[in-house]
Write a structure and sequence with these properties.
Elements (H helix, E strand, L loop, with lengths): L3 E9 L6 H10 L5 E2 L12 E2 L13 H5 L3 H17 L10 E6 L5 H14 L8 H5 L3 H10 L14 H14 L5 E8 L4 H9 L28 E9 H6 L6 E10 L12 H13 L9 E4 L6 H15 L7 E3 L2 H4 L6 H15 L1 E2 L22 E2 L4 E8 L3 E8 L4
Parallel strand pairs: 4-5, 8-9, 8-12
Antiparallel strand pairs: 1-6, 1-7, 2-3, 5-6, 7-13, 10-11, 12-13
Helix pairs in contact: 3-6, 7-13, 10-11
Length: 411
């Protein structure tokens, strides 16, 4: 099978609208959570979220294109454009060998919400002719393919909170087996809308605290639900020899992937963590398990929900055994909130950069240890030291479990 490397990165997040800003803020422990500004929250139980700030799609898109696209598509296009620019891949690849695996958990929820309001207030004749292409969850991928002339496989993964990780993992497999030479992979989400927040609130998924420093607190005893985030992440995955031949810079090598389903419950994780264990173990075993545990980093799903964090801790213990206390773990959702379909992609970027810069991002605001969450979660301050292997885990509604592994480039 072919080797696969990461040659480009792009990120739109609550703590930075490019990779450098995101990374500098994530290792500094910057909190991207604040009171919501996009809509009136007076009748909402949840008042806070992790919004993307100062986003200007017109840096990469013309005004007419922006007008005809949902915010999730704008996030996706901009993140992908950053990644392609970073990789210098444009013009260096056969278009039929370039693919796009860009997913979204909810698609154009903002468009759906605004057009529904229009339908109820002024009637069906006023619905935008662009409504359907703005709403559907494949349009982020399709728009990226159009922009870069990517005529290879174009597959938008939709696995809720596991979307970004599954997209990367499936792109990795496609390149491994020779179906493409490079794929723009990741996830995008823009679900911070009145109806989106109400829906997640009423499903009892979100925290209702108004203390922004005690809201997204993965693995902390006080945790009470996740904080809604938004944004996009894009990675250029490329076949190693193709990248080497064109002299591309390589951030890390993709070296493992696992994907399973709990087949247990539509929102709650299997309390035995069986599916999560198998997904993590599949990815870890594919790496060869040769890394020193002291040089392993796990970017945990770490949502700050009571069930997820203890179940994920159990899964890590089952996979790593006695070494579970040795590996470095953190949840960057403590800073970005839960970016849903974009989470896995942005967190994979954090995992890749942890290897490159030898820094493990912190889990901020972790103050009160939970006896059921007793591993090394890198509380409050980044840890500096060599990282040879990084795993990024995502666990989604519907029981979707995914894990992707990265290692330093060798040879």
């Amino acid at each position: 099978m072919k080797r696969v490397v990461v040659t480009g990165l792009g990120a739109i997040s609550p703590i930075g609208n490019d990779v450098d800003s995101f990374w500098n803020n994530v290792i500094a422990g910057k909190n991207g959570i604040d009171f919501l500004t996009r809509f009136d929250t007076s009748e909402h139980k949840v008042k806070i979220g992790a919004e993307v700030k100062d986003f200007d799609a017109q840096m990469y898109m013309d005004r007419n294109e922006v007008r005809k696209s949902d915010l999730y598509t704008q996030f996706a296009i901009v993140a992908a454009s950053q990644a392609m620019e970073d990789s210098a891949l444009a013009g260096q690849i056969d278009p039929f060998r370039l693919g796009v695996y860009m997913g979204s958990g909810t698609g154009g929820l903002m468009t759906l919400s605004s057009e529904m309001e229009k339908l109820l207030s002024v009637g069906p004749k006023r619905i935008s002719p662009h409504f359907i292409p703005m709403m559907i969850a494949n349009m982020g991928a399709g728009s990226i393919a159009i922009r870069f002339g990517a005529k290879g496989p174009c597959i938008p993964i939709v696995t809720a909170c596991a979307t970004g990780t599954n997209a990367i993992g499936e792109a990795y497999r496609a390149i491994q087996y020779g179906y493409a030479d490079a794929i723009i992979a990741g996830g995008s989400e823009a679900a911070i809308t009145s109806i989106g927040m109400a829906g997640f609130t009423n499903s009892l998924a979100l925290t209702t605290t108004e203390d922004i420093n005690a809201a997204s607190i993965p693995f902390d005893k006080r945790r009470s639900g996740f904080v809604m985030g938004e944004g996009a992440g894009a990675l250029i995955l490329e076949e190693y020899e193709h990248a080497k031949q064109r002299g591309a810079k390589m951030y890390a090598e993709v070296c493992g992937y696992g994907a399973t389903c709990d087949a247990y419950h539509i929102t709650a994780p299997d309390p035995d963590a069986t599916g999560a264990v198998r997904a993590i173990a599949q990815a870890y075993e594919e790496t060869g398990k040769n890394a020193d545990p002291k040089k392993v980093y796990v970017n945990a799903h770490g949502t700050s929900t009571p069930l997820n964090d203890k179940t994920e801790t159990l899964a890590l213990k089952k996979v790593f055994g006695d070494q579970a206390n040795t590996i470095h773990i953190s949840s960057t959702k403590s800073m970005t909130g839960h970016m849903l379909g974009a989470a896995g992609a942005v967190e994979a970027i954090a995992a890749v950069l942890a290897i490159q810069h030898s820094i493990v991002p912190p889990t901020i605001n972790l103050r009160e240890r939970d006896p059921e969450c007793d591993l090394n979660y890198t509380p409050n301050t980044a840890w500096q030291g060599e990282i040879d292997l990084a795993l990024s885990i995502s666990l989604g509604f519907g029981g979707h479990n995914a894990c992707v592994a990265f290692q330093k480039i060798e040879g």
